[in-house]
């Protein structure tokens, strides 16, 4: 067990002994930071992001994957990481996808040489397709849906939104005046009566959601027949949603207003619907990319997969004012009482005890550390790390620090701006590692100072409001004089 390094200690005091919410986010730990992936994002970034998303099976809650590729003429070397240990079935699934995509790409090139044009890929691909390209992609799509089935079921059933969604559809479409949303309610909420075309599309989506619900009910692994029916339903649903969202006022984004009018749970149903069709959209994006030269920059016949290490060395921090002052740095004039109460608010019962630092090396940072090791050995990589979900604010800060120190413009997806338990990766070059840690610590120290300062100001305002009273109130003697004639017997 070792003492925490500067970045780890700073993150520790920023987060405190927190409790995670359902998504693993540190509650109340939003960070103001850039959310853009940057102008240098390469063309193959979307392929890497979609590959990372399709690694998530949903078997375990909170799965997150990162992926990068180091291509050359001899082999394509993929580096992947998960915030936990990468399961063997995920590694096999990635290899299946990559080999299938490479073989499909070769079929596309053969077709192009013979026909002097690229093959057209129908969406959805018919189950009885005979074209070699279509058959290869169809096999891959079934494999993707089988791997992603737990995730699809979890997203579909989350918070029973599927039932509320179909209830809203029924209230909008019903011909029974007692069940239909009245015109007065629609007008009050800024809604309107749907056109016949919109009603038809909404009716089809309701039917599809009801059919998918039936297909997802069994807890056992799905049959090929169930997968084929589901992928077709999702393709149709995605197509209708695309038409709906192209309207001046997207219909699904108004569902929250419909839900309020019905007294139902007020959620983002457009987001829910997009989550439901996400596996279809991610696979389709990759399938269409097999006709692009971009795929040649990623895949070769020989493919290897390496796992980046995400387990940090155990570390501990003593929770006391002295260590907090060290973390804040010189020149800070916070009084001891303020710092003590700040620690009490963050750590509670852990105050004045030695606490183990939570968190792992996040998957995108672990992949970045591996890419840096290869860079030092003179092996170039595609300067992008694909991720299955937006990076946390601390990963974003680390990538920024790495770019500033090394001049290597390696990027990842946008950040959601929140912090989760996080540990700093270690780079192979010790000098570079120390510079990156120093650059990162400067950013984090400014953030910690701002956080303590905000706590101090909020506590001061609370104290003032509790002790000062802007009203002139009667004294007890005044009240005795006013009510002297009142009998309490």
Describe this protein with a few key phrases.
489 residues, alpha/beta, 5-stranded mixed β-sheet, 3-stranded mixed β-sheet, 8 strands, 7% strand, flat
Low-confidence stretches: 17-36
Strand order of the largest sheet: 4-3-2-7-8
Question: Tell me, what's the shape?
Answer: flat
The total strand number stands at: 8
Largest sheet: 5 strands, mixed
- Helix/sheet category: alpha/beta
Q: So what's the oligomer here?
A: single chain
Separation, N- and C-terminal Cα atoms: 73 Å
Helix content: 40-55%
Order of helices and strands: EHHEEHHHHHHHHHEEHHEHEHEHH
Describe the structure.
InterPro entries: OTT_1508_deam-like. With 489 residues, the protein is α/β, with parallel strands linked by helices. It is 52% helix and 7% strand. The protein has a five-stranded mixed β-sheet, sandwiched between helices. Strand 7 (384-387), helix 15 (393-406) and strand 8 form a beta-alpha-beta unit. It is flat and about 85 Å long. The model is unreliable at 17-36 (pLDDT under 50).
